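F.,

This is the one I mentioned.
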């Protein structure tokens, strides 16, 4: 207790209300990596993101606190829900750096055991403490040390009114002996916060906060804007920034697409609400900051009429979708539409890619199948003259067994693999990465150079692109099938790709898996090219979309495929290890290098 020498409780509360102990402060951004590892190691849900907690208001009638902070005091307390673990941005509650760091570790460890609700706050916290300490006895000293200092931090029951005193004694008993208190005595004001416990989820209208990634960086909406000029998107009408902000903060963990402030607080509840949100998104105003232009561009997100749309290649294909909340599939939930662009015309390779394509063709031509003759075979296409001569010598000498392997046959040294390239052409690919190029521009260049390389290697490959507008319209654009040649027709289809709509990634991966399963090659590669997190206008937001995509990737792996993701999303390391696995994705830090890097990645992947 040496840290508390010289501190009285009233003096401590005064310092706490006036700014705590800033000289001993510990910040979440500095501890994020350690906390993330600990949380997952103790069994915490790996899909949760680490987010800064919002301050909570506590009503108190204590005169000295009213004098210092009014009738309400704000505290940042820990809690978790289905999408995130929320911890205070800064801890300086104790006059010791190590104690404040231990408090972070304890809160992350406790959160790995579950979450609590309003009606079970007291009992669930005690139960989680008991479970945690029984599973990991090594945390007992940390807990006991935090309890001792927490009791020093809490008010003296003798200074409280009778009802509040009974309640404070019950909380102290629950801290010292977890599981010994079944209910909390009632009182008129809020209890002094229990800083080493979790709290219930805040209502959606009160949620805000920023994502803290495992790489000790803070993810913010439009995270690439600090490095590159991007488009900003905003609603045409007004928007209340205090409503539904959590969903956009969570989106920033998974995507670097521009921040569109539309209230989606109901997206993950009922599908009727999601439909309303989709209708609300049909028209947005996008202002481009390219060259600091103030002009506004409007995008109509309604589906085009049938006469103006691309060609539909047959009826829609119904696919399942994984609902992580019920841990079950929703059969025939998505409708995927194979499509072919009306605007494409046969085209030559663009001039700016000619030199790079020539180099790649030369490099990849070394991978072409080579004709090799296998000698001394029992059957084959031609007689093996050397074997025939040896047999005649043996026959005349009459020595040894006469060799009957008199033929030779030609064998192609074929690379036994097939690759399907799947490109994300959602609306976010319309953003600029520099003054001259958009994401879609470098994606098209990358597809063209990779295709030129694969044609030279003669590896069987197919090209498709996808976007979506809710579950009933997943657009699957046909560029090149396995049985089609790569020629000016295919080049024209690549050049006709344009951004639009959203990213229902799970359905596209499932269709690509079906196409690859029909191939006879031993190695089958599904190469996904994207710029961010899966998302759509309905329920396909946040964790729902990530979990469905993760399940689709696992289905592909079980089918014997090798799914691999190439992305230019700076924040991809926060979610792609969970979706694809730590070794099955790569982040291109400089998007301009994507066209040249894609063929190199393919070569390394297929060696």
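My design for it:
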């Amino acid at each position: 207790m040496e840290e508390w020498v010289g501190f009285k409780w009233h003096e401590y509360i005064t310092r706490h209300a006036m700014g705590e102990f800033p000289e001993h402060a510990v910040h979440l951004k500095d501890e994020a990596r350690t906390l993330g590892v600990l949380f997952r190691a103790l069994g915490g849900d790996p899909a949760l993101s680490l987010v800064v907690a919002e301050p909570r208001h506590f009503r108190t009638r204590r005169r000295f606190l009213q004098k210092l902070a009014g009738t309400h005091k704000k505290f940042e307390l820990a809690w978790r829900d289905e999408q995130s673990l929320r911890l205070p941005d800064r801890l300086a509650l104790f006059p010791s750096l190590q104690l404040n760091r231990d408090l972070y570790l304890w809160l992350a460890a406790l959160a790995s055991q579950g979450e609590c609700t309003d009606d079970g706050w007291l009992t669930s916290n005690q139960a989680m403490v008991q479970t945690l300490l029984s599973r990991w006895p090594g945390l007992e000293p940390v807990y006991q040390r935090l309890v001792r200092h927490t009791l020093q931090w809490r008010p003296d029951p003798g200074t409280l009114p009778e009802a509040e005193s009974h309640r404070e004694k019950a909380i102290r008993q629950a801290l010292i002996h977890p599981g010994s208190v079944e209910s909390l005595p009632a009182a008129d004001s809020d209890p002094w916060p229990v800083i080493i416990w979790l709290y219930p989820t805040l209502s959606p209208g009160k949620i805000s906060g920023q994502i803290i990634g495992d790489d000790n960086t803070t993810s913010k909406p439009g995270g690439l804007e600090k490095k590159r000029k991007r488009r900003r998107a905003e609603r045409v009408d007004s928007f209340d920034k205090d409503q539904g902000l959590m969903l956009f903060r969570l989106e920033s963990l998974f995507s670097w697409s521009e921040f569109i402030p539309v209230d989606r607080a109901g997206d993950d509840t009922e599908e009727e609400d999601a439909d309303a949100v989709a209708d609300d998104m049909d028209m947005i105003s996008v202002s481009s900051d390219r060259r600091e232009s103030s002009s506004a561009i409007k995008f109509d997100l309604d589906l085009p009429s049938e006469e103006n749309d691309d060609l539909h290649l047959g009826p829609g294909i119904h696919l399942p979708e994984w609902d992580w909340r019920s841990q079950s599939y929703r059969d025939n939930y998505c409708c995927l539409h194979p499509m072919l662009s009306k605007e494409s015309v046969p085209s030559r390779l663009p001039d700016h890619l000619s030199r790079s394509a020539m180099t790649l063709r030369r490099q990849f031509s070394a991978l072409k199948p080579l004709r090799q003759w296998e000698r001394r075979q029992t059957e084959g296409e031609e007689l093996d003259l050397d074997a025939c001569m040896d047999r005649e010598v043996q026959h005349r000498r009459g020595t040894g067994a006469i060799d009957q392997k008199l033929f030779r046959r030609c064998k192609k040294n074929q690379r036994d693999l097939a690759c399907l390239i799947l490109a994300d052409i959602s609306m976010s690919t319309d953003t600029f990465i520099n003054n001259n190029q958009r994401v879609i521009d470098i994606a098209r260049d990358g597809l063209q150079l990779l295709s030129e390389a694969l044609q030279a290697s003669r590896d069987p490959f197919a090209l498709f692109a996808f976007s979506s507008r809710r579950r009933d319209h997943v657009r699957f654009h046909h560029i090149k099938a396995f049985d089609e040649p790569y020629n000016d027709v295919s080049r024209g289809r690549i050049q006709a790709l344009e951004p639009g709509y959203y990213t229902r990634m799970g359905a596209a991966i499932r269709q690509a898996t079906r196409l690859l399963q029909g191939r006879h090659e031993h190695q089958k590669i599904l190469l996904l090219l994207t710029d961010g997190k899966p998302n759509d206008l309905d329920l396909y937001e946040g964790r729902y979309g990530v979990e469905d995509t993760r399940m689709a990737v696992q289905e592909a792996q079980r089918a014997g495929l090798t799914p691999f993701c190439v992305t230019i999303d700076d924040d991809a390391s926060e979610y792609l290890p969970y979706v694809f696995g730590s070794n099955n994705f790569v982040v291109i830090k400089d998007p301009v290098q994507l066209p040249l890097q894609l063929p190199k990645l393919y070569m390394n992947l297929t060696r």
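The longest helix spans residues 439-457.

Talk soon.
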